[in-house]
Specification:
It is a single chain. The protein is an alpha/beta fold. The chain has eleven helices and 17 strands. It has two domains: 4-301, 4-Layer Sandwich (Metallo-beta-lactamase, Chain A); 312-358, no CATH class. The chain has helices spanning 4-19, 70-79, 95-98, 101-106, 123-136, 170-173, 195-203, 226-232, 252-260, 268-271, 320-329; strands at residues 24-26, 37-41, 49-53, 59-64, 85-88, 111-116, 141-142, 148-151, 154-160, 177-182, 185-189, 212-214, 236-239, 264-267, 273-278, 283-291, 294-301. The strands form two sheets. The protein has a ten-stranded mixed beta sheet. The longest helix is centred in the N-terminal third of the chain and has 16 residues, at 4-19. The protein is globular, with a radius of gyration of 20 Å.
C-alpha cells in the first residue's frame, strides 16, 4: 500500500515535469467537447467551489468559496465562455462555501435555478445572499434526500439532508450531498457532512458509490469515516484546502483512510484547480491554471486512455467463481479497481451463488 504522503509527493513531481509540455489554450476554443461532462474543482483557498458543465453546455455551480473568490469565479466563467448559469447549489450556509455566490448574483450573469437545503445560516446568508435571490426574483428549490433532477443527460441525486432536517450539529449534517452521474462516471459532493451525518445517510439506505468523492470539510477528521469511504469506494478524491491553512487540512488520518480504499487524492493547495472530463466511459483529470482568458493543462490521470473503464459491481456476475476470476484478472487482491472485495480478505462478491457466504 502506497503511503498517502508519497502519493502527493509523486503527483507534485509529475506536475512539475509535465508543466513545460502543457499547451496554453483558450477555454472557448472548442476544447470542451460536446458529449463530455466537465467538473472544474476550483482552487478557492480554504473553501469549496466547483463548476459543472454538462455535455451540451449547461452550467451548475456547487459552492463558491468566500466572497473574495466570487470575482475570480466570474473571471473563470468568462474565460469558459459561459453566458448563463443553469443552477447554483450552495451545499450549506458556511461562508467558505456560499459567500462567493453574492458577487456572482450581483453580476449581470443570468441564473435560472437555486438549489438549497432549507437550513438557516449566518448573518451574511440572511442579510446578503437571500436578499440577492429576492432582487433577482429567484425562488429557491429546497431539495432533500430522495429528490432527483435530470440536467442535459446528467442525473442529479440528492442523498442529504433528510426531511425533516437533522437537529444534531445541523449546519454540518444538513449539508447537501449530491451525486452527479453520466454514463459509467459519477461524482459525489458532500459539503461539510460529519461522520454522524454519513452514518445517518447510510442507514437511510442510500448507495453513495461513486467514481470521484469530494471529501467533506476540506479533509477534516470530522468526516470521511472508514465505513462511508468503503460505501462510496471512490477511485479518486478531491479536497479543497488552502495553502498553509491553520487547520492542517487535509488531516493525515483522512489521507490514510483514502489510501486504505485505494482512492487517489488531489488537493487544491497542492494541485491548484483540478478539471475532470469524461464521456461517461473514459476519464481524464487535469491541473488547470487560468491566465488572461487562457489556461495551461497538465495531465494527471487518463491521458491517453487507451481503453474505456467500465465499472463492474457484484450483481454484474452470475456466480462467485465468475466474479473471483474477474477480480484476480484485474489485479486482485493487491489491487481492486472495481471494489469487489469490500472486506479485503482476497475474496470478491462472497454472497454470490457458489461463494463462501452464499
Amino acid at each position: 500500500m502506497t503511503h498517502p504522503g508519497l502519493r502527493l509527493a509523486v503527483a507534485s513531481f509529475l506536475l512539475l515535469a509535465l508543466a513545460a509540455l502543457a499547451p496554453a489554450r483558450s477555454f472557448t476554443d472548442g476544447s470542451a467537447n460536446a458529449g463530455e461532462l466537465e467538473v472544474h474543482f476550483l482552487d478557492v483557498g480554504q473553501g469549496d467551489g466547483a463548476i459543472l458543465r454538462t455535455p451540451n453546455g449547461k452550467i451548475i455551480l456547487v459552492d463558491a468559496g468566500r466572497k473574495n473568490r466570487g470575482p475570480e469565479i466570474l473571471d473563470y466563467l468568462e474565460a469558459m465562455g459561459v453566458q448563463e448559469i443553469h443552477a447554483i447549489a450552495p451545499s450549506h450556509s458556511h461562508i467558505d462555501h456560499y459567500e462567493g455566490f453574492v458577487p456572482i448574483l450581483e453580476s449581470p450573469l443570468p441564473v435560472s435555478e437555486v438549489w438549497l437545503t432549507g437550513q438557516a445560516g449566518s448573518p451574511t446568508w440572511t442579510n446578503e445572499f437571500l436578499p440577492e435571490l429576492m432582487v433577482r426574483g429567484l425562488m429557491p428549490e429546497y431539495l432533500v434526500a430522495g429528490d432527483e433532477r435530470l440536467v442535459d443527460g446528467v442525473r442529479v441525486q440528492v442523498f442529504n439532508p433528510p426531511n425533516p432536517l437533522h437537529t444534531n450539529n445541523s449546519e454540518y449534517n444538513n449539508s447537501h450531498v449530491l451525486r452527479f452521474s453520466y454514463g459509467q462516471f459519477s461524482i459525489l459532493f458532500t459539503g461539510d457532512l460529519h461522520q454522524w451525518g454519513e452514518a445517518q445517510l447510510l442507514q437511510r439506505g442510500h448507495n453513495p458509490r461513486s467514481t470521484v468523492l469530494k471529501i467533506s470539510e476540506h479533509g477534516s477528521n470530522h468526516g470521511s469515516s472508514e465505513s462511508f469511504l468503503e460505501a462510496v469506494a471512490p477511485r479518486y478524491a478531491l479536497i479543497g484546502a488552502g495553502f498553509d491553512n491553520q487547520f492542517d487540512h487535509p488531516k493525515p488520518e483522512v489521507l490514510a483512510r483514502l489510501d486504505a480504499v485505494d482512492a487517489e487524492p488531489f488537493v487544491t493547495k497542492d494541485h491548484g484547480t483540478i478539471v475532470l472530463r469524461t464521456n461517461g466511459a473514459n476519464l481524464k483529470i487535469w491541473r488547470t491554471k487560468l491566465s488572461s482568458n487562457s489556461y495551461v493543462d497538465t495531465p494527471l490521470v487518463g491521458v491517453p486512455s487507451p481503453t474505456p473503464f467500465v465499472d463492474k459491481d457484484c450483481p454484474d456476475f452470475s456466480t462467485w467463481q465468475e466474479a473471483q476470476a474477474f477480480f484476480l484478472a484485474n489485479g486482485g487482491p493487491s489491487k481492486d479497481p472495481h471494489r469487489l472485495d469490500n472486506d479485503r480478505n482476497g475474496l470478491a462478491c462472497e454472497t454470490l451463488p457458489g461463494g463462501p457466504n452464499s
